[in-house]
Structures are given as structure tokens and as C-alpha cells.
Amino acid sequence: MIRSPLWVTLLCSVVAICLTATGCSQANHRESAPPATVGIDLKPDTTGNGEAPGALAAATTLPTLDRRLLSATSLAARIEYTSTSGITDGRTQVTATVFVPRGTPPQGGWPIVVYGHATTGIQSECAPSLSPTLLGASTAIAALVKAGYLVVLPDYQGLGLATSEHPYLDSTTVGYNVIDSVRAARRLVPDASDRWLAAGVSQGGQAAWAANELAGGYGQDLTMVGAVSLSPPTDLTGFAELAAAGTLTKDQQASLQLILVALAAEHPDLRLDDYRRGVVAQKWDVLSSCDDSTSTQRTEAIEQIGPDDLRPSGPDQTAVLTDYLQQRGLPRTPTVAPMLVIYGGADSFLPGAWTDRALTAACTMGDVIDIQFQPEKGHSDIDVSMAFGWINERFAGQPAANSCESFIAAQQPAEEPDTTFGDTGESDSGADEFVEGE
Q1: In a domain, 114, yes or no
Q2: For the chain, how many structural domains are there in total?
């Protein structure tokens, strides 16, 4: 399927491409070249119920796409398809890009990998599909396509189209978007398989995990073989706790501001002024932008955020925020396919303890998870080289490793040593000396 050096190169490049969940693509990957959407209408199969999840509304070629990626594909297209909002359960329109390998598809059709991108912003113009380089992801996508995968890169709801808001870090919405992108790609490409895998980094890691949970019901017409979740946002409630304490890191401050933008759009009764003040209130629109013209201002504004600028105004407001964040997080239900989770213990955006809580809950639900914890790694420098073998094994149908039993055991607090001896209730002096010496 895929040669090991290719996957090592691919996934290492993926991690290097804007893994931070603070929207680094907003500042670093905007191009002045024309959008990659001016092309030929492919007249896709739009028959049937246009309101059904995965229904294909439009497809256009991508003539201005990165030439290295174009040369690797037999088809590169931007599509618009129907999906579902995790907030309202209503139908939405979402965009994605689809890339088909050259050559003859294998028996059963092209296997599909959905690549979940990291945070690019929350405005419609922040979509990877509007960028000739896919906001820096084109190299990774090209490697996947050359390896023989049909690759789908969903923009996520609200990115690429101005018809709805982007519900930033709402796991259910991005999970739906990922599953429906597979359906839409199969409508576009008759030679596509129903076997697929989700792989994502940061926000994309959340999307891959969420899709795995939703696949049993929402995606039961497809065959999901696994999910790779790298540095995923899972248990988000810590944002509220740290905001109340005034101890958010810069990474966390930038992301919480984006979360608040999304929450205000979803809940009109939410009083933003209960959660923002100082430079955050003054530079609200700048902080929310992914336009290259405001990137310097945004960076400067983030540096000026103080400990009180995102502090909830009181315990009630902290409780409200905690509840909203809990609704966006993971896990929610058992997964249907094995999962690989890689995360770092020195992550300044998503502390390892937050991921530990999510993994404990998921393991308790019975999930099969290969857990790779790297204590000295941060959010964007985790070692992902082992993912090659893991993904190959999933498509080959081999049993997956499950770390849950040992992980749960390691989370249990150590028992207090028993220092009593005999029936008299008196302690042995030698034992006392040993315990005191420890």
C-alpha cells in the first residue's frame, strides 16, 4: 500500500504544517494568488435527494492549484456538499477538495483518506480550498495521493461558504463534515471505495476522533477502518477553569477567543462582555480575522492579552462556559474503528492531563486505542513516524493494538503501603524505618 519512508515524510510534514490550534495559517499561509476555484464545472451526479447527507451540489476543477499536487492527480476538484450541523441538527452546505491518484484503481476502488486540517480560522475566507497550496497542506496531500489514496480535505462548516457560521471546536459538526465528505467524494468518483480512514492534526484530530464515534450510526453506509488523531482537542472544559484563574497560555487565549466568537453566534443570549475586556474587547474583529492584511495586528493583539482580558465575570459565567465546552468535547459515544492517538506532555495548548481524562473515558466505553504519550513533546513536535505501520495494518485488516488496559491501570493512584504487622496493631520498627526512609 504505502512505503514506510513516504509515510514518515508525509506525517512529519503534516505536523510541521500549522499544527497549533491558534490559527497560524491565518498569519502565515494566505496567498495573493487567485483562489483555486476558477475552473471547469464537472457537472457531477446531483441526482436524488439534495438534502441527504453527502449529496453533491457542485464540483469544479482546480487549475491554479499547486503544480506539484496537480501533477500527481488524475483529478483535483473543489466540491460543495450537504452535511449536518452538530449544533442545530439542520442541513448545511460544506466545501472540500478531492484528489484522485493517477493510474488504475485497485480492486474495490481507491481507498479513501480524509485529512482533517488544523485550525485555519473561523471566517469563510479561511478555507484551505480557497488557497492554491491548501494553506500549506498541498505537500502532505500530494504524498498521500502518490501513495495510492483518494484524498479528501474538508474545509468544515462555515469555511469556504458564507452560508453558515463555523462552530469552532464543535466535535459533532466536524465529525459529520468528515463523514459526508466521503459520501460526496464517492458521488464524484465512481472508482472510489467505501473503505476509508480519517487522519487529522489538532482540530483535524478532533474531527477524525468524532467521525469515528459517529460512523456507527451516521456513517453506517461506509466502512471506516481506523482513525489517526494527533494532538487532538478532546476535554475542553479546562479552558473555562484556566480562564477563571487567569492562567491561560497565549495559545489558549487565542483559541478561547475564537471559541467565544462561535458560541456567541450559536447562542444570542450569551453576553460576550461577561467574557471579554481590555485588548480582547478592543481588538475583537482583528483577533477573529484570517486576512493577511491584519496578521501583524492580530499577533500584536495576542501578545497584549492580559490574565483578566478573558476571565469570566463570575462563577455563574464560568459554569455556563464550562457547560458549553463540555458539549463540544470528546468522547461522547464509543468509536467503531481502532484509533491511534499521539499527544505530548509538554503541550502548552492542550495539557496532557486533559487528553488523559478523555482517553480514560473512551477506554471505559470499550474503545480500541493505541495510545502513544510523549512526555517531553509539545503540541507541534510530536513524533508521528509510527503512524505508517499502523495505517497500513488497518487497511490490511490486521488486529489493532489496544493500550487501554495498561493506560487505565497507570491512571490509578498508588496504594498506600501496609505498615502493620501481626494482630497486635503494633508496627514493626524495621518497617517504620523503611517507610520513613522513603
Answers
A1: yes
A2: 2
